[in-house]
Amino acid sequence: MKTVETLDVIVHTISLASATSRSYELRAPDGALPSFEAGAHIDVHLGPSLIRQYSLCNSPQDTGRYLICVQRDDAGRGGSRTLHRDLTVGQRLRISPPRNHFPLVTSSRYVLVAGGIGITPLLSMAEALAARGAAFVLHHYTSSQATAPLLERLQTSAFAERTVIHRSDQGDSVRAGLPTELLTPDPDTAVYVCGPDGFMTHVTAQATAVGWQPGQIHTERFTPAAPPPAGGEAGTEFTVRIASTGIGYPVPADRTIADVLTANGVEVELSCEQGICGACLTPVLVGEPDHRDEVQTPDEHAANTQITICCSRARTPELLLDL
Amino acid sequence: MTTALPRPAALPRDCTFDPDDWAILARHWYPVALSREIGDAPTAVRLLDETLVAYRVGGSVVVAHDICPHRGVPLSLGGGDGSGITCAYHGLRFGEGGRCVRVPAHPESKIPSRLNLRTFPVVERYGLVWTCLRPAPDADPVIPAMAHWDDEGFQQINCPSIDIAAFAGRQLEGFLDVAHFGFVHLDSFGDPGDTVVPDYSPVRHEHGFSVDYWSTASNYPHGTDKQAPPGFRWLRHFDVHLPFTATLVVHFPDGGRLNIMNAASPVSARQTRMFAPIARDFDTDQPVQAVYDFNRTVFEEDRAIVEVQKPENLPLDPKLEVHIPADRSSIAYRRGLRELGLSHFFTA
Ligand code: FES
Ligand code: FES
Ligand SMILES: [Fe+2]
């Protein structure tokens, strides 16, 4: 193992970036920070076992500070909540030097496609591309005006005319179709996609389907693709009832259906315990699951006939399982 | 009384597969030999427990049952001269399309059409002889695609095949597995200090699925002086064509591309012949023997593992093994096999 070098920074400014996200400006106590490339991220040490990656969203030419933007995710693994709740201006923070796993390749043209908070690395790329006079367009898919992160900065940027904001509350989501520039493949264009897992998978699949080469599409995952196993704050309490016995068991917010059933002597099958393999799929007779797996297709999710009991929860107060 | 002649739908004798699984697998195309290995002489090959004979007449390859329709002697015991093959027992001669062209005992008599060999369709591609035991009537052959093979500037290399005493599904799954490099490939390219598997997600398509896998795990062979720039992320693009073929395009730091096809030919449920055509656009002037040797090392490392895996087959029911996030390709692979209609557990 390599030893990991870290940097000490000071939280210089905290500002609202949307109703649900905040920008943090980090500076070095002595004024100097290593330079970075567009697409780079830093590891932020929030606690002994709480290290989170955040993309830098300022311009790489903007030396002397790092800007990150963090969306609060109450169903997440705790990093964003800690930041939102505990970070204060003037506080010291330990971070890693910037690392780039999402570098800009050389290309004649670029199409940047962001979903939600996935805008962060792409914003930095847009800054870099604008600074060097490159041809590009930036698409930002958000759910609403209020929750669109960094909207103000986008609208006042040097590349505001080359930025297209799509709002799904106005019916303009990526499900409705690809951005215009992606409708026909172009070998001289590099495509960068960042956003939630499903968003990236969808855009990549659609773009490949119209003929873009996989090597042209660059993605970076900034959250784990699988929902975390329910441990911690996974939702609200509900009841699972077993059809064969009629017995109902309360499933508290911090335990999984599988945990509760096993603890009560109900035999269930488990393998991955994180919603990726399908071993625990169980028929649902009554009630609406809150699906958190990636085993079933969107259609199967919509049908609500089966649930992965290792990670999914309930939208209704009770679920009746065919066990 | 009607006679019980072998019907086209009959299973091979000593079939090691579940009959329904066999019927599904037999609809697909598999390579059975390297083109360069098939000449005038009849050569025995095996696919899905069926013994086949391959020979060349007038430049094209014939693949047929390796059983003389006369008295059942393997044709691969006979000889050939480029215009046909001759059975070792009574000298029956077979030419183009497996047609019987001579019965030495009755040179002047009419040759019954039932003396023709039972042949299978043949396509030569990527330097391999592909065939299909139960092609759908009137359907075009579906041979897995291999990017770059015919591209300008790419060198085509066909490694010698490798025999593996394991099920093709296990072998193919091993080819897709991205978590074993730093443990199994220590003599070839693996780095025991770089074993973390970054997230990736398989995307389904018509013939299977594809995966873009980005990681820092290097593909340079140990012992070369080449090194990726620090922090370089390698893109490995996998494309799976169900049931047993996959290609892997490795994107090198200097822009070079290496495409390796892993075509696992199911000899039986416990035996696999692995073919590996390769296309690359770098080092194209270097001797191919070095590529053969490197690939041999890599696949021998894999072989040592797949031959000892238990159960010998691939459990398609996700409950039968434990899965970790690095296994997304394996999970997609097994799901794909289930969707072909294969049974939850291949029998052996
Ligand atoms: S145990 Fe794998 S999906 Fe639930
Ligand atoms: S560690 Fe995976 S099979 Fe043993
Ligand atoms: Fe391997």
Walk me through this protein's architecture.
The complex is a heterodimer of chains A (323) and B (348). Chain A is α/β, with parallel strands linked by helices. Chain A is built from six helices and 18 strands. In chain A, strands 4-3-6-1-2-5 form a six-stranded antiparallel sheet, with helices on one face. Chain A has a five-stranded parallel sheet with strand order 9-8-7-10-11, with helices on both faces. In chain A, a hairpin with a 5-residue loop joins strand 12 (238-242) and strand 13. With 348 residues, chain B is an alpha+beta fold. A seven-stranded antiparallel sheet of chain B has the order 12-18-17-16-15-14-13. The radius of gyration of chain B is 22 Å and the shape is globular. The two termini of chain B are 36 Å apart. The interface between A and B is medium-sized, with 28 and 27 residues. One FE2/S2 (inorganic) cluster binds at residues 270-273, 275-280, 293, 295, 308, 310 of chain A.
In percent, how helical is the residue content of chain A?
Answer: 10-25%
Largest sheet of chain A: 6 strands, antiparallel
Q: Between the first and last Cα atoms of chain A, what is the distance in angstroms?
A: 47 Å
Distance between the termini of chain B: 36 Å
Q: Write out the strand line-up for the largest beta sheet of chain B, numbering strands in chain order.
A: 12-18-17-16-15-14-13
Mean pLDDT level of chain A:
87
- Alpha carbon gyration radius of chain A: 22 Å
Uncertain runs of chain B = 1-8
Number of helices of chain A: 6
Mean pLDDT of chain B: 93
Outline of chain B, from the CA principal axes? Answer: globular
Strand content range of chain B: 25-35%
Strand order of the largest sheet of chain A: 4-3-6-1-2-5
In DSSP terms (H or I, runs of 4 or more residues), the helix count of chain B works out at 5
What is the H/E order of chain B?
HEEEEEEEEEEEEHHEEEEEEHH
Brief digest:
The complex is a heterodimer of chains A (323) and B (348). Helices cover 16% and strands 30% of the residues of chain A.
